Automatic annotation (TrEMBL):
It is found in: Membrane. This is Major facilitator superfamily (MFS) profile domain-containing protein. The chain crosses the membrane at residues 66-87, 99-118. InterPro entries: MFS_dom, MFS_sugar_transport-like, MFS_trans_sf. Pfam families: Sugar_tr. It is a multi-pass membrane protein.
Length: 163
């Protein structure tokens, strides 16, 4: 308990330094990228409905069928669960920084691939989009980013407490 109070007092009296801003940017970018990856699709499904499912004779022209909208919206969350388990295990085996780079590359590749979804039929395009969105959710960038940030802040805090 006394050690924790010493750490809290050191945090309260510490001057704002460059590493504070670095930590804020790292945490903010991790949150922003994952939030964008997971939640922007709800806006895009409206555009997909207008492009691929436009029927002037229906009551709601340009809306995705419910089963397809649910699949496109939810498949990335399934990938996120699987990715956290897999990359958490892999991060312990290979090292977190190495796996962080791997997940970053996977995120960029899947993001570009989701923009270039292709197919001959409507269901084919949506199936490919769902497949790519699963892998986009699989990357689990934010969790590894917070682990690295935690280690960075802890190490820097320990060094600053020693001086």
């Amino acid at each position: 308990m006394a050690n924790q109070l010493g750490v809290l007092n050191a945090l309260d009296t510490a001057k704002t330094q460059w590493y504070h801003f670095t930590a804020i940017v790292i945490a903010g970018m991790g949150f922003f990228t994952d939030a964008y990856d997971l939640f922007s699709i709800s806006l895009i499904t409206k555009l997909l409905g207008c492009i691929y499912y436009f029927d002037a004779l229906s009551e709601k022209p340009g809306t995705l069928p419910h089963r397809i909208a649910a699949a496109v919206n939810g498949v990335a969350f399934c990938g996120t669960l699987a990715g956290q388990l897999f990359f958490g295990w892999l991060g312990e085996k290979l090292g977190r920084k190495r796996v962080y780079r791997l997940t970053l590359m996977l995120m960029v590749i899947c993001f570009i691939a989701s923009e270039l979804s292709f197919g001959k039929s409507l269901d084919g395009v949506m199936a490919i989009l769902c497949f790519i969105r699963f892998w986009l959710g699989f990357h689990m960038l934010q969790s590894l980013q917070f682990i690295l940030l935690h280690k960075f802040v802890d190490n820097h805090l320990i060094l600053s407490l020693r001086t």
